[in-house]
Amino acid sequence: MEIWINPACSKCRGALALLDEEGARYTVRRYLDDVPNHEEIRAVLDRLGLEPWDITRTQEATAKELGLRDWPRDADARGRWIAALVQHPTLIQRPIITADDNSALVARTDEAVREAISRSKD
């Protein structure tokens, strides 16, 4: 299992603490330093079953500067949204856990972290 984090984020720190408490095996990806590329974003979206606008932090200053609230949310605009996430990784919702069963979750709650753990048990 892998968890995408921003160390400054309290939800990320909480998720890591719970993973440790539960004895889960995981790797950490600091996605602001190790920015996911287009293919990785597409893959995690497929695993999440979500669209890029669903994992975009629209309240961030960068989102407002880009005018993301006004961008279309359809198949034709999908690539544009993914490109924005690659170019501005601070826009990616966090933390994201990719579980061993090939699924993923936006793990902002303890319940979501526990779900990821249960999906990653042998």
Automatic annotation (TrEMBL):
<keyword id="KW-0560">Oxidoreductase</keyword>
<dbReference type="Pfam" id="PF03960">
    <property type="entry name" value="ArsC"/>
</dbReference>
<dbReference type="GO" id="GO:0008794">
    <property type="term" value="F:arsenate reductase (glutaredoxin) activity"/>
</dbReference>
<dbReference type="InterPro" id="IPR036249">
    <property type="entry name" value="Thioredoxin-like_sf"/>
</dbReference>
<protein>
    <submittedName>
        <fullName>Arsenate reductase</fullName>
        <ecNumber>1.20.4.1</ecNumber>
    </submittedName>
</protein>
<comment type="similarity">
    <text>Belongs to the ArsC family.</text>
</comment>
<dbReference type="InterPro" id="IPR006660">
    <property type="entry name" value="Arsenate_reductase-like"/>
</dbReference>
